[in-house]
Protein 1
Amino acid sequence: MHASLIQIAVDQDEPVKTRRERVAELVRAERDADLVVLPELWTVGAFAYESFAAEAEPLDGPTHEAMAAAARDAGVWLHAGSVVEAAGDDLYNTSLVYGPDGTRAAAYRKIHRFGFDRGEAVMMAAGEELVTVPLPGLTLGVATCYDLRFPELFRGLVDAGAQALVVPAGWPARRRAHWTLLAQARAVENQAYVLACGTAGTHAGVEQAGHSIVVDPWGEVLAEAGPDEEVLRVELDPEKVTATREQFPALKDRVLGLPRPPRHG
């Protein structure tokens, strides 16, 4: 399976409509891929809190229309990163996944909101559901940015059948070391691919880490971007997940967090 991660530079001087159109063309250019992944909140910027309400859109809003068309034109599975979703009186940080025919296959509302009682943590509602997406030969588990710090979420995705964990993000440069470390840790502990796609540039005064990364089920880094806008292209082998879990069956030795077997006698 060919995967492309598009590390988008988010510049607040670029109008959202212009960036949306530009990114749609970047997706169309990856027509040789099977899966394309975009970052978190690339339309507005993950730290541009003051713009969240103004740029919020329904699930069938302009980003949906642009990304559905781009996925269909390229004939790819597209994880379109996330948008600020307007749902009644609530806002959500919602990831969107599309099939090669342009149909929306899944939407994931970010469960762990960042901000420590500020920003996203108070402006957005929390999602509640884990989301997996079965692709031909490989099941994706969907998470977003700050979720990366909560291993129980990823273990739940693996229990639901995930073989590759996709993490769009708007991760700050000052914590870049955590980004790389956590991406590798989630891959090793879950014996799954991790595709972590971040943003480049600086928005709302926050320099972005860039350095999108793809890690295999053994923890080896297959590809890593630099700090600027870039496309990572990698080959994923679904059989490597199966082989890793069979050759080093650590997941079978889990004890905590599992239902206890019934006692007899």
Note: The two ends are 50 Å apart (CA to CA).
Protein 2
Amino acid sequence: MKQICASKPADNFSRMYYEGKVLIISLVMQWGTNELMLHTADEIPGKELEAPDQVRTHIEPNL
């Protein structure tokens, strides 16, 4: 962010420069979100993944 704030691109390139930086930041943020979701799912123990299924199995016939 400091680099973006400190930069002074030429007028005819400024829009392209800033749009490119925003795109890169967006991609990095999306990648980080995807990585977090991927690793979080891998770190949940199998026993804890069974609990929601057991709850659903109990609730559905008793609704």
Note: The mean pLDDT is 75.
